[in-house]
Amino acid sequence: MTQQEIAALVKQTGFMPLFTHTDVTVCKNVLQASYNAGVRLFEFTNRNENSFDIFIELRKFCSESLPGMILGIGTIKNGQQAEQFIHAGADFLISPLINEEIYKVASKHNKLWMPGCATPSEIGMAENRGINIVKIFPAKQLGGPPFIKAVKAVFPHVQLMATGGVEPTQDDISSWFKSGVAAVGIGSQLFPPDWLNSGQYDKVTTHVKSIIEYIQKAGKK
Prior knowledge:
The chain is of the alpha/beta class. The strands form two sheets. Strands 3-2-1-9-8-7-6 form a seven-stranded parallel β-sheet. Strands 4-5 form a two-stranded parallel ribbon. α9 links the parallel β8 and β9. The longest helix is centred in the last third of the chain and has 19 residues.
């Protein structure tokens, strides 16, 4: 898919699951459970020493077993990481910051890059570079839905994905969408460690399905 198509899919689904782990089997099981729930956009987060090796395995797993799954890489903090994961098959890049190096690499390869922004100045930097979808991080700590509502009034054409502190409940998710987000990113609360440790991936699928339903309902308000 093109970067424009992936950006449109982010807005259409309103949801980005985020996950990282050092065990490739756990990662594959989480991807499969999410896929079974209807997820077709997924961010594997680059936070561990073996994240690159695991990503290569997950890219192969998606290509062979999960048709239609768009797999991106998160926590990209410099141009070298961006190049490395693009060559490994990342469909899109997400960062906790906005960085000129990453922008140049993503542009060169025509890849969707969602920079992390925490201020109007950073959102403006993204908009002035033609980036129309950004990650607001850490969203809850920045002020939550009231912060989103305030910056959305100034940047009505920039799509915002709130990540960091989004609760997996109908009320919380609805409050984010009412404030003006195009999507939410949910990580640790989406995949409880005790479920993963005990192999209860059916619970993960059910949980993810409920989140998708919450988002669909919130998007209609």
